[in-house]
Structures are given as structure tokens and as C-alpha cells.
Design brief:
This protein is of the alpha+beta class. Helix content is 21%, strand content 34%.
Length: 299
């Protein structure tokens, strides 16, 4: 019998994606996903937006009906913005921990630092963000924007695809008594999507906050109830236990496909693609197209 002993955390760590300077565009961004919800994370050098770290969100089943009918195309759903008190400065430290499918970052600004941790849960359709700002960055905040509300400066930085269908939409927000906020986008002609999110301070006197967000296709009562339930259930879990469930799925997934190659560049390429594959699709999910859950403009 052939026995192999692999120190998985150490083995995978040598293939982690790392950034020492901040990513400034979609094709440079750090990416998270679970086959349904995705986030591409990057910033922008424009002087009016140098305090913003963008989580450009995607949801693989959100489509909009075009006037005249035909196949409904996928459409953008919006963004989370980490709005910092100071400008996002250099150096920056961002790492995608492949083994645990998690982004960890320490962001330096002109007035302080922010420690950031984020992942899209492997089992639940929820993006989680943990934020620990220094005293100078205590006013840093996370804000959701529907795609139609994203500042033109940021859209212009991403470039425009004149062939991409972008539906006009009406956006409605409401906050429930428990602090959960729901943003509903109703697309003209037909279709829409629902986003729900909640933020909580971990404990009194500690500047550590957690944020949970879920997205779903549609805007009827059943969809809203399901998306709200996703967030409430995730935020009510014991944090470390919920994180452990997320990690166990990824650990089991990687162990099914072990390959080691003498060429470490090729070896890293393989494991990054394995991470990308499970971030972009699942056996019970949507078929993976060219962009997975990270929809953006293209040539």
C-alpha cells in the first residue's frame, strides 16, 4: 500500500496568491467565490476614490430580460465598498489563503491601518467580511451599492462594453428591526435581484466588526425571505464553528486531486486553477462561463 503524508497547510501556502501593492483593476484583483456568489476585490487610483476598496459582487444566476425578448443575459448586481478614513496607501499586504479559501489583508492608509478578512462560505450563499481598523481608521465603513448607484468614476475605470446589456433598475432599501438591511433591484422589462446584509460589532469596546451578505435572483416575497434567512442564519452561528465548516469543504476538495510537479511554477498554476474552479462553479451550480461569478465588462 502506498502511503503519502502531506503537510497540507504548508504545501498549499507556498502557492498562495499574494499582493505587496494594491490591485487597481479587475484583472489584478483578489477573487473569492463558491460557484454562486463571487467577489473581485481591488481599488482605484483616482484621487476621488483612493479611499475605497471595492468588492465587485457577482451572482451566477442573476439575469435580466431584454426588450423584445430573447435569451436573458447575466447582469452586474452591485458592489460592497470599504470606505476608509484615509487614502489607501502603499505598501499593501493581501493574501489569498488557498487552503482555507480566504482573503486576508492589512491595508495601510494615510491615517492608520485596517486588518481585513473575507471569504464566500463554501456551504452557505453568504459573503463574510471581518474588519479590524486601527484608531485612526475607526470610521472606516462598509457600504453596499446597487450597480446603478456605483459612482461613474469607478465604472469608467473598469471600461465600458457597448454590447453589454445593462438594465435600468429601481432600487428599494429597507432595514428591519434586527439591523438586517435588504436592497431590492427591479429591472425594467423583467427580472431583478435581492441583496441582504447585516453588520455587527463583535464585542463592546473592541473595534472588530463582522459583515454578512447574500444575493439572490428575483425580488418576490419568497426570494426576499430566503436571502434574509441566509444572512440571519449565518450571523447567528458561532463564528469559528461556521468558519470551520467552510474550511472543511475546501480541505476535502483539495485532497481529491493531489498533484506535485517538480516545476513549482506549473505546480502553483495547477493549484490556483483548482481554487478558481471551485470558486467559479459547483456540481449543483450554474455552468461556468468565461467569467464565472466575477462578471465584468469585456472587449
Amino acid at each position: 500500500m502506498l502511503k503519502t503524508l502531506v503537510d497540507w497547510p504548508a504545501f498549499m501556502a507556498r502557492h498562495d496568491l499574494t499582493w505587496s501593492v494594491k490591485p487597481n483593476s479587475w484583472n489584478e484583483g483578489a477573487f473569492l467565490g463558491n460557484g454562486f456568489i463571487g467577489a473581485m476585490i481591488y481599488s482605484e487610483e483616482h484621487r476621488e476614490k483612493r479611499n475605497v476598496l471595492r468588492f465587485v459582487l457577482g451572482c451566477t444566476d442573476v439575469t435580466a430580460q431584454k426588450p423584445g425578448g430573447g435569451f436573458p443575459p447575466r447582469v452586474p448586481v452591485g458592489e460592497l465598498h470599504l470606505e476608509l478614513a484615509g487614502w489607501y496607501y502603499q505598501p499593501s499586504s493581501i493574501r489569498i489563503d488557498l487552503w482555507n479559501a480566504e482573503m486576508r489583508a492589512e491595508i495601510t492608509t494615510t491615517v492608520g491601518t485596517v486588518k481585513l478578512r473575507a471569504f464566500v462560505h463554501s456551504q452557505d450563499k453568504v459573503l463574510a467580511v471581518e474588519l479590524e481598523p486601527s484608531e485612526g481608521e475607526k470610521d472606516a465603513r462598509i457600504i453596499w451599492h446597487a450597480f446603478s448607484e456605483v459612482d461613474h468614476v469607478l465604472k469608467n475605470a473598469d471600461g465600458f462594453n457597448l454590447n453589454q446589456y445593462l438594465p435600468q433598475s429601481e432600487v428599494d432599501r429597507h432595514t428591519n428591526e434586527d439591523g438586517l438591511t435588504v436592497g431590492v433591484q427591479r429591472f425594467h422589462y423583467d427580472g431583478g435581484c435581492t441583496t441582504a446584509w447585516m453588520e455587527r460589532q463583535v464585542e463592546e469596546g473592541v473595534n472588530l466588526r463582522r459583515f454578512w451578505l447574500s444575493i439572490g435572483n428575483g425580488f418576490d416575497t419568497e426570494v426576499k425571505q430566503r436571502i434574509e434567512s441566509n444572512v440571519r442564519l449565518a450571523s447567528s452561528q458561532q463564528w469559528e464553528a461556521w468558519v470551520d465548516v467552510h474550511r472543511r469543504w475546501w480541505h476535502d476538495y483539495y485532497r481529491q486531486s493531489f498533484i506535485s510537479i517538480p516545476d513549482t511554477i506549473l505546480e502553483s498554476f495547477y493549484w490556483i486553477q483548482m481554487y478558481k474552479l471551485a470558486s467559479a462553479t459547483r456540481s449543483d451550480g450554474m455552468i461556468m462561463d468565461n467569467q464565472g461569478p466575477w462578471l465584468t465588462t469585456t472587449p
